[in-house]
Amino acid sequence: MRRRPRLSYANVVASLALFVALGGSAVAAFVVTSDDIKDGTIRQRDLSPSVRSASTRPKPRLVFRRSRFSTVRVGDTGQALAYCPRGLVTTSGGATTQAVSGEASPLVITGSQPAPPEEDPRWAWVVDVRNTGTERGKVEAFVICQRARGPEPGTRFPVGE
After folding, report:
1. I need a labelling partner for 95 at 20 to 30 A (CA). Which of 3, 87, 137, 142 fits?
2. If you compute the radius of gyration of the chain from its CA atoms, what whole number of angstroms results?
3. How far apart are CA 161 and CA 157, in angstroms?
4. pTM assigned to the model
5. Of all helices (H) and strands (E), which one includes residue 22?
6. How far apart are CA 11 and CA 138, in angstroms?
């Protein structure tokens, strides 16, 4: 007795899944590289909106600034300030310390944070230190700044207009 193949729902779904899986891998195997594109053939309108906005957005410009060394006498506290140029804002900062003689630093950093814009419209990084050693120490603050993404610090806005 000869058996006749029957077309069942399971056979149809399995065959369809096989074709989709094979077709999907064939599409994924086709990759376009820059060697495949002639110069000047892709225009701005050919790109997706997210790619267009990313290509025209200005890249963040980071600026690194240092303060002058401040000398701190034995038993005293001291402070160093590093300022961002106008139009740039603080992103991070820190400090370096050393002994005046070049030996290990007698200074302990007690604070390191951005200066509030209400106090200094140029925006700065402030470092507080205490000398716990037996000789004078030096502290130098540094600040990393980038372009402001809003109004200049200290800008006043009219209220109720």
Report:
1. 87
2. 32
3. 10
4. 0.53
5. helix 9-28
6. 81
Tokens of 102: 């070049």
Report the C-alpha gap between 53 and 65 in whole angstroms: 31
Grouping H, G, I as helix, E, B as strand and the rest as coil, residue 90 is strand
Helix (H) or strand (E) holding 2: none
Could you tell me if 115 and 123 are in contact, meaning their C-beta atoms sit under 8 angstroms apart? yes
Q: Which of 82, 81, 74, 66 is nearest to 130 (CA)?
A: 74
Q: Quickly tell me which residue has 């630093």 as its tokens.
A: 105
**Which element (helix H / strand E) includes 136?**
none
